[in-house]
Amino acid sequence: MSSEAHSARPSGLLAELRLLLMAVQYFTRVPMPAWVGHSADQLSSTPRYFPAVGALIGAVAALVLWSTSLVLPGPLPAILSTAVTIFMTGAFHEDGLADAFDGLGGGATRERALEIMKDSRLGTFGTAALVLTLLIKIAALNALPVTFAIIVLIAGHAFSRACAVTLIFAGTLVSNPELSRSRAVAQPMSRGELATALAIGIAPLYWCGVHAIAGFVCSLIVLYVLARWFMRRLGGFTGDTLGATQQLTEITFYLAVLASWNSI
User: Rounded to two decimals, what is the model's pTM?
Assistant: First the structure.
């Protein structure tokens, strides 16, 4: 993106607040005030606030997990907490995960994989990936003490979105820009924008204590593996692979933190 496009954008706290609310509006079903509006040009500056949106989603999930654990037994609080995040986002990332695995699992060539990802029908690979991801997420959260799980939820949602933003910064969008819903937010980012996203995404890890180290390292390893896989198969990333990255780094974070918790 040219420097002229960046300089043309409004600056100041109100402009930054608008970008944050536009990010919330893009990734969730939370209603926003009319003045937030919708601008494709300004949407390209919202990725730096994606981890903040994740922290918001994680906070709501944590509230549901904590409140339902007071009256419901077993894995039900973790199930309801996960259901709320899916409702809040309209299964935005889960849909990307399923489409990405359908395409990469069923497409022998780059072109065929991209074609399958655009198919609205859910295939075997996507179904398996979606079911397993949800089961692992619920099982991991249920295995943690509730008072710690609520912190891990916020950290996991925020940091996994920072991982997806890193993929935007380092990679290239390869899907058809005229058909991709992600084209507005998957534009080239500056180092400053990436630094903001990473700062927001990493900050909640502090509250996870020493266990965050395992989650941080393992999530970065998975991010690296996914980035190499997407580059080898597709030559870059798509909106669907961004969703897959968010989901897979999120569950990796939970599993690594859980393993650290059990080993100490």
Answer: 0.92
